[in-house]
Amino acid sequence: MTEWTFFSYGVPWWPYLFILLAGWLPTDIWRFLGVVSSGRISETSPAIALVRAIATALVAAVIARLVLYPGGTLEAIPMIARVGAVAGGFAAYLLFRRSVILGIIASQCVLQFGAWWAGLI
Predict the structure, then answer these.
(1) Which has fewest Cβ within 10 Å: 5, 74, 99, 104?
(2) Is 25 among the domain residues?
(3) How confident is the model over 97-109, as pLDDT tens digits?
(4) Between the CA of residue 12 and those of 6, 16, 24, 50, 61, what are the distances in Å?
(5) What InterPro entries does the annotation carry (predicted)?
(6) Strands (E), the chain
(7) pTM for the complete prediction?
């Protein structure tokens, strides 16, 4: 039997089946289990607090990775602009009554200004 990799088979439908098996199915199992068990777990339970803490930490780690060690085009934008975009977005989020959309727009404006200042646009 051959290995199950993205390029294992020459048939046109194989990449789609591979994405289904390797990407969608493993994550959807956990989503399904979360939906099934959500009615039985108290919202104030220590298990839910742990899950929220881990999810928040993962999101913070991804944001920190993108800001401090970016790749691609984001790497060309100066560090001060990337950090300023995070700070400006958070400040706008708090200033505009916890509006996520306005926080994102503010951070994008700071990031675009940083790219313009660096001569990228």
Answers:
(1) 5
(2) yes
(3) 999 999 999 999 9
(4) 11, 8, 19, 43, 37
(5) Brnchd-chn_aa_trnsp_AzlD
(6) none
(7) 0.63
